[in-house]
Amino acid sequence: MPPSQKRARRYDHVRTRTAVLAQFGHVRSAVAGLTPDQLAGPTRLGDWTVRELAAHLAMAVESVSRCLDRPAPERQEVTLLDWPFATAQVAGQISEDVRALAATTTPDQLFRRTADRITERLPAAAEDRLIASRVGAMRLGDYLVTRCVELVVHTDDLNAATGLEIPYDRQALAACTRFLADALAVKAPGASTEVRIPPYAVVQCIEGPRHTRGTPPNVVETDPLSWIRLATGRTRWRAAVDEALVAASGERADLSDLLPVMG
């Protein structure tokens, strides 16, 4: 498919690259301390075990090195804001690959190999270098933003499954929050509702009367992790409102029909 004309915000390439490596380091340290019983435990991702979730986290980062091993595509096919709406088509293949990887490689081996390869390959790669991702040819700089999303979302899944408190790199959390907010604005274009996720993002969305000054008539506000869980279907809108994780005011402030933004 041709790249869309939607304009994504700019992300600093060095900061994004550093965030990917930092968040991967947090996950690697946590996974290294898991016992066999913990690795065999369930997650909130269907029938995936913690071992399979860990394999997916490593695979998300290893995909950068794997893409850099291949020749660069001739033209871009997918923009950053196309990515969240294109991943569903490859979810089945990703799940198969995760299961195969988890069954044949120990977490320690997998994370060590992944860390060695990305620290060798990534620093020398240019932001505008095209890579062949699963959903189409993308800029490396854009793909690294998606790796922040994968790492932050699945770090939260890993914390939920194990009871750990793996930290979130601030830049990775910011990139994930902003990206998913921008994806909502793409899914529901407009300017009648303001969605605030302090301290990282504010977007306008949903068709209707445009707000120009003063306090917007339709406002949604939540914290970054609550937003990420809503945007990826980990938390339902009504539950978040009932638990006061979201403040919503105005007749166009109900986002239930727009969530999740991506699965």
Structural commentary:
The chain is built from nine helices and six strands; from the N terminus they run αααααββααβββααβ. It is α+β, with helices and mostly antiparallel strands. The chain folds into two domains: 160 residues, dinb family like domain (Four Helix Bundle (Hemerythrin (Met), subunit A)), CATH 1.20.120; 71 residues, Nonspecific Lipid-transfer Protein, Chain A (2-Layer Sandwich), CATH 3.30.1050.40. The chain has a four-stranded mixed beta sheet with strand order 4-3-5-6. The chain has a two-stranded antiparallel ribbon with strand order 1-2. The radius of gyration is 19 Å and the shape is globular. The two termini are 21 Å apart. The mean pLDDT is 94.
Layout of strands and helices, then pairs:
Elements: H1 13-32, H2 36-39, H3 50-69, H4 91-104, H5 107-121, E1 130-133, E2 136-139, H6 140-162, H7 170-187, E3 193-197, E4 201-205, E5 219-222, H8 224-231, H9 237-242, E6 246-249
Parallel strand pairs: 3-5
Antiparallel strand pairs: 1-2, 3-4, 5-6
Helix pairs in contact: 1-3, 1-5, 1-6, 1-7, 3-4, 3-5, 3-6, 6-7, 7-8
The fraction of residues assigned to DSSP E strands is 5-15%
From the alpha carbons, calculate the radius of gyration and give it in angstroms. Answer: 19 Å
The CATH topology label of the largest domain is: Four Helix Bundle (Hemerythrin (Met), subunit A)
Q: How many structural units, i.e. domains? A: 2
CATH architecture of the largest domain: Up-down Bundle
Strand order of the largest sheet: 4-3-5-6
Major sheet summary line: 4 strands, mixed
What would CATH call the homologous superfamily of the largest domain?
dinb family like domain
What is the 3D shape?
A: globular
Instruction: Give the oligomeric state of the chains in this entry, treating copies of one chain as homo and distinct chains as hetero.
Output: single chain
Q: What distance separates the N and C termini?
A: 21 Å
